[in-house]
């Protein structure tokens, strides 16, 4: 009994630590990735700096260099859609199919300084166009700030999938479905088995061999704002 209890405590500590690893703005408490990347010695002219930034930008987006080139050529009114070097100031990731997958969105603000590039990735949120089963769900789910779900319990996958299911309940035509609504489990109720099941569900939704695409994205953004 004692070994199981120890393993379970280690499991909870690992997931709570992972949840806390999402960087926060100390004033707002919102998830935010922030860094200052010093200009490399050979990057002195404005043209070279912008080229370097465009190359770096690929680290924080799913876009290709060709996608970005087309975006820069668009005749968009004003600068509300752009940040430094003519790059998009908002990013959309789609994990899985458009109708059922997981969308992650965030803002990117880039500011050149004499010392280097100041970069801020903020306003991180997720949503889904529909539910796990498209022909059952009929409405758009709202965007949810990621910080509202990261620390709710020890399993982010459980929280997200359960939230999607709960939001889709009004679209079920069965009274039984409405009666089946339950509150989310507390952290101490998320056993390793429950977590594993929901991580597999999220992996199926995102069509990813990696069970935790959000954790992979967190690591990617953390590395991006830490260096070129």
Describe the fold and architecture.
The protein is an alpha+beta fold. 39% of the residues lie in helices and 18% in strands. The strands form two sheets. Strands 1, 4, 5, 6 and 7 form a five-stranded antiparallel beta sheet that branches. Mean pLDDT is 80; it is low at 1-19 and 131-138.
Name the helix and strand elements from N-terminus to C-terminus, one letter apiece: HEHHEEEEEEHHHHH
Which regions have little confidence, pLDDT < 50, spanning 5+ residues?
1-19, 131-138
Q: Determine the mean pLDDT.
A: 80
Helix content: 25-40%
Rg: 20 Å
Strand segment tally:
7
First and last CA, distance: 49 Å
Annotation field: number of helices: 8
Estimate the global geometry from the Cα principal axes: elongated
Q: What profile does the largest beta sheet have?
A: 5 strands, antiparallel
Short précis:
Residues 1-19 form the signal peptide. The chain is an alpha+beta fold and 228 residues long. The chain contains eight helices and seven strands, in the order αβααββββββααααα.
Helices, strands, pairings?
Layout: H1 2-20, E1 33-38, H2 46-57, H3 65-73, E2 82-83, E3 87-88, E4 90-95, E5 102-112, E6 116-127, E7 144-145, H4 147-150, H5 156-168, H6 175-179, H7 192-206, H8 213-224
Antiparallel strand pairs: 1-6, 2-3, 4-5, 5-6, 6-7
Helix pairs in contact: 5-7
Summary keywords:
alpha+beta; five-stranded antiparallel β-sheet; signal; disordered N terminus; two-stranded antiparallel sheet; 228 residues
């Amino acid at each position: 009994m004692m070994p199981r209890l120890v393993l379970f405590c280690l499991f909870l500590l690992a997931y709570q630590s992972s949840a806390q690893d999402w960087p926060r703005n100390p004033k707002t408490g919102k998830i935010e990735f922030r860094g200052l990347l010093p200009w490399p010695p050979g990057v002195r002219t404005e043209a070279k700096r912008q080229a370097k930034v465009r190359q770096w930008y690929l680290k924080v987006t799913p876009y290709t260099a060709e996608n970005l080139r087309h975006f820069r050529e668009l005749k968009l009114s004003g600068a509300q859609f752009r940040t430094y070097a003519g790059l998009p100031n908002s990013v959309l990731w789609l994990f899985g199919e458009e109708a059922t997958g997981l969308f992650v969105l965030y803002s990117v603000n880039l500011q050149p300084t004499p010392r280097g590039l100041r970069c801020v990735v903020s306003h991180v949120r997720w949503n889904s166009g529909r539910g796990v089963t498209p022909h059952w769900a009929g409405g758009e789910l709202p965007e949810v700030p990621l910080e509202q779900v990261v620390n709710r319990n020890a399993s982010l996958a459980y929280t997200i999938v359960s939230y999607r299911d709960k939001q889709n309940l009004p679209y079920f035509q069965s009274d039984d479905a409405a009666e089946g609504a339950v509150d989310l489990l507390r952290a101490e109720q998320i056993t390793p088995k429950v977590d594993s099941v929901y991580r597999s569900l999220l992996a199926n939704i995102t069509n990813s061999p990696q069970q935790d695409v959000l954790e992979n994205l967190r690591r990617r953004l953390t590395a991006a704002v830490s260096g070129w």
